[in-house]
Amino acid sequence: MFFDHTRLSVESLGDRIVPATLSVGDAAILEGNSGTQYALVSVTLDAPAKKTVTVNYATAAGTATAGVDYGGVSGRLTFARGETSKTVAVPVYGDRLTEADESFTVNLSGAQGARIGDGRGLVTVVEDEPRLRVGDAAGTVVHHVDGSVSGTTLYFTVSLAAAYDQVATVNYATVDGTATAGVDYLAASGTLTFAPGETTKTIAVTALANFAGVTRWFSIDLSGASANAQIIDDQGVGTIQYYVEQPGGGGGGCDMDNPYWPNC
To answer: How confident is the model at residue 6 (pLDDT cuts 50, 70, 90)?
Structure first.
């Protein structure tokens, strides 16, 4: 029987020259309010293993702290012939602390039977405590044909990024910009309380019947969130526009299509 030793040696050499490539993926996981969740990190071969492949893995702290935010793990993965994927499970610890998203990495080293292409996987622990933000608002004060002036109400929306299972509170207050409290609008302040499950609240601010003629603004500022909440966007801008009714209909104001009033 004739054996093609040349062919066998070439294939063996090819395996050595072009080994399979190992990569570790990124992952993201919600932190949770308590208990332990597991971040699942995939380690893959770009082609089925023709022989046993092994590689070491270990977590490394980033902005997340081992033993506090997650449990450090390390070990060795073994890919049997034909396998292409393995999973590393990393415990992540839930809490009710208000903090930014945090991260750590899973790193590969010491591969045998394959080379490491991407040896660093980033794991993001997504904060899920209440995150507060306030939007902008606008309103128009109208100068009527009969000479009267009517004010308006600006509505600011304060929102939570997601529903929460506890009460969350935040303080608010108006702050002058080019608009002056008591002249252009009525100052407002107070505390908003989000019951469990609520995600939006509205702040109403009255713009007075004072026809300044030039667009003015003030802000709503958030502060003093409860310990279980975090303010992401603390300022909403309120814009007061002015509109002049014209005899026979139509009008002007800060509107480039109807510039009857020279304030644009």
So the answer is: very low
